[in-house]
Automatic annotation (TrEMBL):
Species assigned in the record: Bacteroides muris (ex Afrizal et al. 2022)
Localization (cell): Cell membrane; Membrane
GO molecular function, one term: proton-transporting ATP synthase activity, rotational mechanism
Pfam families assigned: OSCP
GO cellular component terms, semicolon-separated: plasma membrane; proton-transporting ATP synthase complex
This protein's encoding gene: atpH
Classification via NCBIfam families: ATP_synt_delta, PRK13429.1-3
Membrane topology of the entry: Peripheral membrane protein
Coiled-coil annotated residue ranges, if any: none
UniProt similarity note: Belongs to the ATPase delta chain family.
Protein's name in the database: ATP synthase subunit delta
Main location: membrane
Length: 186
């Protein structure tokens, strides 16, 4: 079974259904939270693949991961029931990512991630967001992340493009040039 093909079929079917019902925005928010939960709690995926858990327990786990204590939308609940009925819970993270991609393409939303060594101010974050949005001619979702291992500078991912201006990467380049130069001398 090809995970990508099956996941995309489910995601496309859900997107078409959501558009016909006018609930794609609500589902997008729920799937964003579910994606965040999958990334933040890797054990979630393992729990969903656990054969000891009942379908009811898995359903409750998925809904909690997507909406917390709030009630899940009718469409989300029906879709999750279908996924669990068809025993496709092992594909749920891939289905989630496929749905998010389809929604973003449909709504012309770019995704950016800014990684810095120290937290950036709200003003800087907004300037980067606005510049990227204007450059893409699309609305923009910008996530910021602090990673002290880059030592300074920043790494900016936008769609499929990466701009790495971190100190750590610059030091690696200098080190590699030094090693290459010494090899030529010997």
């Amino acid at each position: 079974m090809d995970i990508g093909i099956v996941s995309m079929r489910y995601a496309k079917a859900l997107m078409e259904y959501a558009k016909s019902m006018g609930t794609e925005d609500t589902l997008y928010k729920e799937f964003c939270m579910l994606d965040r939960s999958f990334r933040k709690h890797p054990d979630l995926r393992m729990a969903l693949e656990n054969p000891i858990l009942t379908i009811r327990e898995k359903f409750a786990l998925i809904c909690t991961a997507a909406v917390g204590d709030a009630p899940a939308s009718r469409e989300f609940a029906r879709f999750m029931a279908l996924v669990l009925k068809n025993r496709r819970e092992n594909l749920l993270q891939y289905i989630c990512l496929s749905f998010l991609d389809l929604y973003r393409k449909d709504k012309h939303i770019g995704v950016g991630r800014l990684i810095t060594a120290v937290p950036v101010s709200r003003e800087v974050r907004e300037r980067i967001h606005d510049s990227a949005s204007a450059l893409l001619h699309a609305s923009m979702e910008l996530q910021t992340e602090v990673d002290s291992s880059i030592e300074g500078g920043f790494i900016f991912d936008i769609n499929d493009f990466r701009l790495d201006a971190s100190i750590a990467t610059q030091l690696k380049k200098v080190k590699q040039q030094f090693i290459d130069k010494n090899r030529r001398i010997v």
